[in-house]
């Protein structure tokens, strides 16, 4: 009799255990399958995963992503130690149901921003209670509220790729929403990628099509900075001669003036306005602090340079260079001969080849 009770107890416990692992398994299975489809649709080959999963759950995620997705997976205990390769595509899978993961993100604050540049595709997975949303619009609004708070100091600018996957527990399907901010302190803009997405076979292709449709639709929105007053730095090394960016009569600060039309074009193209900060030097590094405009970049008091400057390696610590606007060549120079000799010589045709004149314009810095 006792044996029988014990046996039924064991069976009951076993059933409970199976049931628990099944309920939990559904979430982990769902997350793994979604990650496979999403990252395959993005052609991502290696994924960093961050959440509070135990050994069994990690094994499950690892197994699914490597077997079905043929991806490399790395579980990180600490986001501060992540150094993604900026030149290759990568995925970042974050379990938003894990409170400690979100806490760590909050504590990292601005430090996290360095993980947003580069080709990193973020996927946050959400498992909200049943009644938090009904329509797509409500869901997008719910996510914007939630993530405006979570991404308070995070620069999810238009060039970033942040997607939230929300599970619908009733149908076991997913809604994917993309979020970005048009500028640093703006509210997040949601874009619904797909609703009722099921991770069956062919999910990858369906997602690929939805993503292509979305990028066609949202390109214009991502290029509209909504009239943002962009803090922009410029260097005027000879302020006593400065009569405005359009003054071509004066040869001082010509490099800055020559580049300004590009900035103006960019301003109309991306719908922002300028909030100019003028200093007297482009700036160099001295004992880990930069001076001039570069110092303002380091200070984070400006976000754009309304000028051109030389691409020096150490400046890459504080800025990204956009495009080459002026090709500078150096030539052989020698002491200026007396004018009488120059005027009788017929071989001097090109200033840069001959070097017979002093440079007319001050060199850019
Ligand atoms: C992992 O977590 C799940 C859900 O919390 C639990 O059911 C499972 O027993 C855990 N596995 C281990 C090895 O702790
Ligand atoms: C959500 O609703 C479904 C059916 O409506 C129910 O089976 C499930 O237990 C609910 N889940 C939660 C977390 O409340
Ligand atoms: C630029 O942004 C402003 C402010 O949001 C907006 O009113 C205007 O319509 C935008 N211009 C274009 C061309 O989108
Ligand atoms: C570099 O900074 C030190 C003080 O930290 C100063 O004494 C020195 O003059 C600076 N050098 C240049 C080239 O500005
Ligand atoms: C450079 O910075 C370090 C640390 O801030 C400081 O100890 C050192 O005195 C600085 N050197 C100069 C030349 O200012
Ligand atoms: C950067 O900010 C610090 C204080 O926040 C200030 O002392 C320093 O002068 C600033 N540097 C530049 C180049 O503006």
From TrEMBL:
Q: Which UniProt keywords apply?
A: Signal
- Its domain of life? Eukaryota
Q: Does the keyword Signal apply?
A: yes
Signal peptide boundaries: 1-25
Name the chain's protein.
AGAP004969-PA-like protein
